[in-house]
Amino acid sequence: MADDSGLVSSETLSSYNMIKTETQGRVAVVTLNRPKALNALCSELFYEINDVLARFDNDSSIGAIVLTGSERAFAAGADIKEMKDTEFIGNYKSNFLGHWTEQISKMRKPIIAAVNGYALGGGCELAMMCDIIYAGEKAVFGQPEINLGTIPGAGGTQRLTHAVGKSKAMEMILTGSVNLDAQEAKTYGLVSAVFPPEKLVEEAIKTASKIASKGAVSVQMAKEAVNQAYELSLSSGLHFERRLFQATFATKDQKEGMAAFAEKRKPNFVHE
Ligand code: CO8
């Protein structure tokens, strides 16, 4: 049933303990909900995030996803209390954290992280696994793992360096205490927009709705092509992009999009 904001609770997904899920049109909103631990990422929470993301990725009625936390914390990192007594051999054999963090990287649909409050350690890494980051004015991004005698383990040394450059990433990761506030994160290009905390999720949903209204095939291809910019040389990336661009001409949505432009009307995409 829809509430005043138009959000609809998904009954089929109501069995989660540590997340809440809602849908609004073609947008799914996943809210981390472990307030007593500032959304620290324990196994159960990660299992639930992965499970719900996989479901939404395979649900053709969903075109984009918003991932958020509370106003106090997006996520304050991996759960320190859960992992503190684990050992190398066990972690190595079970690929500790590996399987938790792979699902988001595999997602075909765009995910917007709407970050209010703390995004520290694994929380910052979780945000950086998403495709777009929006921040509330009081957001704090940091990689404090060095203070715990360890280092970032889910992309912090790589994605943060790509996002903010080597010097700032080194300063943040090596000191564990140089954090970015929302405006700084925007200046460095880590986040693309900053909003008042209470407007953040609404703004993220607006952008997600806009994305979800486009042809789903071209959205998926565009995401794939942008992500290759991190993996390939320029010439290989340009080649990859051109092939996908050419492939869009096999879709109904390309025919519809260009016909609508020529006929001066809005396109009616069918996501095929
Ligand atoms: N793990 C477990 N519990 C946590 C965590 C955490 N990361 N963060 C906060 N909590 C708990 C606190 O222990 C406290 O619980 P309790 O009430 O039972 O004592 C509760 O949340 C509230 O926290 P505080 O009382 O500390 O709240 P403050 O407002 O005083 O401070 C801070 C907020 C500054 C965020 C503080 O809680 C803090 O420093 N937290 C730890 C931040 C941190 O070091 N994060 C990095 C963790 S290591 C990591 O993330 C490795 C990444 C590996 C990849 C992960 C996969 C994506």
TrEMBL record:
GO CC terms: mitochondrion
Enzyme Commission number(s) of this protein: 4.2.1.17
Record keywords, A-Z: Fatty acid metabolism, Lipid metabolism, Lyase
Pfam hit, one: ECH_1
UniProt-listed CDD domains: crotonase-like
Cell membrane recorded as keyword: no
Any one Gene Ontology molecular-function term assigned to this protein's record: enoyl-CoA hydratase activity
Any single GO BP term: fatty acid beta-oxidation
Keyword Lyase attributed: yes
Leading EC class: lyase
Similarity remark: Belongs to the enoyl-CoA hydratase/isomerase family.
Protein's UniProt name: Probable enoyl-CoA hydratase, mitochondrial
Species of provenance: Coemansia asiatica
Lineage: Eukaryota, Fungi, Fungi incertae sedis, Zoopagomycota, Kickxellomycotina
Gene (name only): ECH6
